[in-house]
Amino acid sequence: MKSFVKIDFSDIDPEHGAPNPERVISGDPQFRTWNCEEAEGHIYAGIWEATPGKWRIAYDEWEFCHILSGRSIITEEGGDERQVEAGDSFVLRPGFRGTWEVLETTRKEYVIRL
């Protein structure tokens, strides 16, 4: 088992997806995900990308995000609206509810713990 895992997706075919249609508010957002690491304890790491659109999000997992490119607005239900762009890092905790709106195709690095 490797103890050092580089987040390198050059040899990984992305998984294609989209938010569930009932969650979409506007646009036709499409996802590509390069999952580079799956570890014991339900931990995942990799790269995720989304095209423009807006959808409702509901987090049951803990996720660290670092935006690599693009621009999005994340709005917490009954709370603040935050614009994120290249260089921004943040954590979404279990229980987060709100919307994710991609203004410019957004790519992020992620670490998820279920």
Examine the coordinates and then state which fold CATH places here, giving the name of the CATH topology.
Jelly Rolls
Secondary-structure element string = EEEEEEEEE
- Note the beta-strand portion: over 45%
The CATH fourth-level homologous superfamily = Jelly Rolls
Number of beta-strand segments = 9
Radius of gyration: 14 Å
Structure keywords:
114 residues, mainly beta, Jelly Rolls, 9-stranded antiparallel beta sheet, single chain
Protein model, in words:
- It is a single chain.
- The chain is mainly β and 114 residues long.
- It has a single domain, classed as Jelly Rolls, CATH 2.60.120.
- Helices cover 0% and strands 62% of the residues.
- The protein has strands at 15-17, 24-27, 31-39, 43-50, 53-58, 62-76, 81-85, 89-92, 97-113.
- Strands 1, 2, 3, 4, 5, 6, 7, 8 and 9 form a nine-stranded antiparallel β-sheet that branches.
- β6 (62-76) and β7 (81-85) form a beta hairpin.
- It starts with 14 loop residues before the first strand and ends with a strand.
Summarize the structure.
This protein is mainly β and 114 residues long.
Summarize the SSE layout with pairings.
Layout: E1 15-17, E2 24-27, E3 31-39, E4 43-50, E5 53-58, E6 62-76, E7 81-85, E8 89-92, E9 97-113
Antiparallel strand pairs: 1-3, 2-5, 3-4, 4-9, 5-9, 6-7, 6-8, 6-9
